Amino acid sequence: MEHLVIHGGRELHGTIPISGSKNAALPILFAALLFDSSVTFHNVPRLKDIRTTCKLLEILGCETHLEGDVLQVVPGALAHEAPYDLVKTMRASALCLGPLLARLGRARVALPGGCAIGARPVDMHLAALEKMGATFELDSGYIDGRVDGGLKGAHIQFPFPTVGGTENLLMAAALAEGETILENAAREPEVTDLANFLNACGARITGQGTSVLRIQGVARLVPTPYAIMSDRIEAGTYMAAVAATRGDVLLTNCPLDAMDAQMDVLQQMGVQFTREAGGIRVRVDARLRAVDVMTLPYPGFPTDMQAQVMAAMCLAEGSGVIEETIFENRFMHVQELMRMGARIKLSGRTAVVRGVERLNGAPVMASDLRASASLVVAGLAASGVTTVQRIYHLDRGYEELDIKLTNVGAKVYRSMD
């Protein structure tokens, strides 16, 4: 099995371009199911999850053509079943549920898989779609949904701001009859990117970026070319890597307007940011300071950056408390960081990180996408060699990570067992 070998202890210097956002691209690609003609997407990251999405779209009746960062999706005669073999590998596959119900009135979708970071039930998706007239049965591991006479607008209040639920409902409501109001909706920039794309195609959505979204259903959407936003989590991961190695790197194509919370935390830790033509320079010239961090829905500190900041904080002066409020099982990277010499004490959803002078390279194993990234950050800063196993997680969410890091001075390469 392929693994990543990192010879640590090298400062990072140079320029890293930020790719298109995985978390924005996936729902926007599934929105292609809403159209009856082809649509072209730009700034699409070349990732395993994108390839999986293309395979699923093809099974559902679309043609896909990917060249560089440009993807064309051509809908045909749509099928209504998303099979387990693909859905099990990617949680976002559940996002075909809303578009299929809107277009076909029928959807049969395997219960989703993805990273093992805790319960992420689709119950809120189903309860909201039921208010719009859909009915569901669970059958042999599949969600079997139907709607007679088309979806109808409804007033929906989520018990928690679910990103996937908000995205599924945005797509379903775009073609529903009447008005749909989503209260306690997710405010993440990726949700806003989806709403902006749908509006560019003729949808009538207001309230993007707030917790209340209003969608006036339309009879038909007309596809238009669209550029996916850049990846704020990829950018934050490289910021954490620069912090851990005390480097100096220019990040280009960086979505700064969506990164206030993570940049605030890194700045408190001692990271210096300077806006320059074409991007933002990230520099650290002294030992980091430990700070307290709590993950929260946007605009709070993102749970997808918790592990990477923890890896950098392992080398900080003092002690910091990291509280994970989104997922109950998102500290699986802690034991691996401790194998490298980190001092971390866990208590439920809280981790107390006491900084050490040095981490030591070690063989470590990734448990999920962002945990993988945290081990890379730690390995870049550690003395000696770190081997990260199960890097298929990394390939789900980071485009050419080893190449980008090599280009700024890291010694990183892939190897087979």
Question: What's this entry about, in short?
Answer:
The chain is an alpha/beta fold.
Domain module count? 2
Structural class: alpha/beta
Biggest sheet layout:
4 strands, mixed
The CATH topology label of the largest domain is: UDP-n-acetylglucosamine1-carboxyvinyl-transferase, Chain
The gross shape turns out to be: elongated
By CATH, the superfamily of the largest domain comes out as Enolpyruvate transferase domain
Separation, N- and C-terminal Cα atoms: 6 Å
Mean pLDDT: 94
Tell me what portion of residues adopts beta-strand conformation: 25-35%
Give, in spatial order, the strands making up the sheet with the most strands.
22-23-1-24
Tally of alpha and pi helices? 14
Number of strands: 24
**What would you report as the Rg, rounded to the nearest angstrom?**
21 Å
